[in-house]
Amino acid sequence: MTDRKMTIREMCEAFDVTPRTLRFYEAKELLFPIREGQKRLFTKRDRARLKLILRGKRFGFSLEEIRQLLDLYYMDDSQETQLRKTYTLAEKHLAEMEAQRDELNEAIAELKEQMAWGAKRLKELAPDRAAG
Amino acid sequence: MTDRKMTIREMCEAFDVTPRTLRFYEAKELLFPIREGQKRLFTKRDRARLKLILRGKRFGFSLEEIRQLLDLYYMDDSQETQLRKTYTLAEKHLAEMEAQRDELNEAIAELKEQMAWGAKRLKELAPDRAAG
DNA sequence: AGGAAAGATGACGTGAACGTAAACGTAACG
DNA sequence: CGTTACGTTTACGTTCACGTCATCTTTCCT
C-alpha cells in the first residue's frame, strides 16, 4: 500500500492549504493525523478525507456538515443504528446535491442566454472584434 | 405590468428572509428599493435581483461576486468598455459554474456508490427492513 | 556548539453575512 | 388618545473559517 506518511508541509503543498487550516481541521475532528513525538503525520486516509473536505467546501457545505458526511465514506464496523442514521443523512445530502445540480444547470442556461444577448449588443457596437 | 411594490414584510415572507437581510443587501448595493417617505418599497426589479442573489448564494458565490454578476442581468445602456468587462466576468463565472456542475455530478456518482455499499451492509444486518 | 528550518501550542484578530437590542417615527384602530 | 403594528436607524454581538503573531521545542546541518 502507498501509505506514505506526509508532514504538514507536504500536505500543504499537495493540497494548497495552510498549516493553520490542517490544524484547524484536526481540532474540528475532520482529520486525524498520527503523532510522531509532537509532529503530525498525515496518512492516506487523511489525504482522502481532505480531498472530500475541499470538495464539500466548493459545494457550499459547512465543515460540520462535511464532518458528518465523511462518516459515510469511512463507515467500518458501526452498529446498525449508527449506520442507518448515516445512511439517512447521506440520502438527504444526495437529494440536496441533485437539486443543486439541477438548479445549476438552469442557472447556466439562463446565464448563457444573457451572454448571447450581451454578445449581440457587443457585435452591434464593434462588429470587428465581437465576443464569441 | 405587474409592478406591485412590496413592503419589507411582504418581501420577507415571499422569499423567506429577514428584514435585516434585505436592509443589508441594500447597504451592499445589491437591491435598490424606492422610498415612500422613510419606508422601503421593493419593485419587480428588486424581486428579480433577490431571486438571483439567493440562487448565487446557494452556489457558493459571495455577495460581492453576485453583485458584479447582477450587472450582467441588468445591462442596459452601458458603454462598450463596461459591457465588455461584464461579459468577460460572466464568461469566467460560466466556466466556474460548469466546472462545479461537472464536479458535482462526479460527487453524486461517488456518493451513490458509497450508499449502495452501505445499503448492502444494512441488508446483511437486517434483511427485512433494508434501505433501498 | 551554533543557527536556521520546521513544527507545536496558545491567544488574539479578521472578513463575511447577518442577528439582536435600543430608541425612535407614524399610522391606523378601538 | 393610547397602544399596537410596522417601519426606521444606529450600533454592538455572533458564527464560521481561518489568519497572524508570539513563544517554545525539536531537528538537521556545517
Tell me what the structure shows.
2 copies of one chain form a homodimer. Chain A has 132 residues and is mainly α. Chain A has 2 domains: 1-74, Multidrug-efflux Transporter Regulator, Chain: A, Domain 2 (Orthogonal Bundle), CATH 1.10.1660; 80-126. Chain A contains 5 helices and 2 strands. Chain A has helices at 8-15, 19-27, 44-58, 63-73, 80-125; strands spanning 34-36, 39-41. In chain A, helix 3 crosses helix 4. The N and C termini of chain A lie far apart (49 Å). The mean pLDDT of chain A is 90. Chains A and B meet through helix 5 of A and helix 5 of B. The first copy, chain A, binds a DNA duplex (30 and 30 nucleotides) through helix 2. Chains A, B: GO terms for molecular function: DNA binding; DNA-binding transcription factor activity. Chains A, B: Keywords: Coiled coil, DNA-binding, Transcription, Transcription regulation.
Features:
homodimer, 132 residues, mainly alpha, Multidrug-efflux Transporter Regulator, Chain: A, Domain 2, 2 domains, two-stranded antiparallel sheet, 67% helix, flat, DNA-binding
Low-pLDDT parts of chain A are none
Mean pLDDT of chain A: 90
Encode the helix/strand succession of chain A as letters.
Answer: HHEEHHH
Helical content of chain A (DSSP H or I, runs of 4+): 55-70%
Set down the secondary structure blueprint:
The structure is a homodimer of 132-residue chains.
Chain A: H1 8-15, H2 19-27, E1 34-36, E2 39-41, H3 44-58, H4 63-73, H5 80-125
Antiparallel strand pairs in A: 1-2
Chain A binds a DNA duplex (30 and 30 nucleotides) through residues 7-9, 18-21, 23-24, 28, 37-40, 57, 62-64.
